[in-house]
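User: As part of a screening pipeline, I want to sanity-check one entry by hand. Below is the sequence and the SMILES for adenosine-5'-triphosphate. Please return the complex as structure tokens so I can compare it with the automated output.
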Amino acid sequence: MPEDNISGVVLTFFSTASSVGKTLIGVNMASELARQGYRVCLVDYDLQFGDVANYLHIQVERSVKDVLETMNSRPDVPLQDCLTQYRYGMISFDVVPAPEFLDEAYNISADDCRRLIEKLRLLYDYVIIDTTSMFSVLNLAMLDLSTIVTFLGVVDFIPTIKNMKIGNDTLRTLNYDTNKIRLVLNRSDAKTRISMEDVERLLGGEFYHILPNDFKAASESIVTGVPLVLGGSDSVLATEIRKLISRYTNRAYDEDDGLPVFDHGEENGRRKSGGWFSKIFS
Ligand SMILES: Nc1ncnc2c1ncn2[C@@H]1O[C@H](COP(=O)(O)OP(=O)(O)OP(=O)(O)O)[C@@H](O)[C@H]1O
Ligand SMILES: [Mg+2]
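Assistant: Here is the complex for your manual check:
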């Protein structure tokens, strides 16, 4: 069950290539944390091409555009009243979906997006942010305020790996706490001629966690709108996602029922110093 000292953790999913699994893994993280009883809000900051609502098969009644408008014009309205709920049986979490129309994304300011997260982190145990694959002003602001950034990569083509290297090197220059950025390899056993070890050597460090390739389980969950971790999937991918979460929440992973045993961890603290803003404006 939720504990006071772990409220307000911001988990951001970021990458420097598209289609590496940011949305799939983010959606499953939100679902598993909600299953464990935490108050969770999943925010889709892929403002132009967001997929969260599609992956969860939810009808968008109020997108991030509406939520921000209410936040700015009606501060008396509780934010939670503006959000969209995802529900599966007894499990539920709140969602801030991306705008319905692409052009609406142009009128959304990064500063408003940042202020929304600052407010949400006071209301939820976990705020999970899905992003795009670029060092945009919005993404840099999200990286700064995150507790943990999952920097996802896949080992498929040379350009993807080159971009992963640039992203990893750039993230290091932001002087975040060393534990903040978690380099996670997704689709590890997808057919490729490039070895993981070579990529780790190039990146100058090992992957924090490795998620297997499971096309069937991943695509089934998208087709049905039921995240892997909720649909009773016994796939290795679901298990590895749960293990990754247990490392983030600092709980021991219990293979039998998937519900971890609580162990106070130091990783759940609020944001650390350093980052893009302090680097640019110091
Ligand atoms: N571990 C995995 N095994 C098999 N397929 C996967 C895995 N992870 C993601 N996929 C598939 O890869 C595709 C892209 O995933 P996803 O949309 O989560 O990536 P993304 O990084 O959010 O992409 P974008 O940058 O376009 O937003 C989806 O079809 C998803 O099912
Ligand atoms: Mg995505």
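Points to compare against the pipeline: The chain has one domain: 7-259. The first helix runs from residue 22 to 35.
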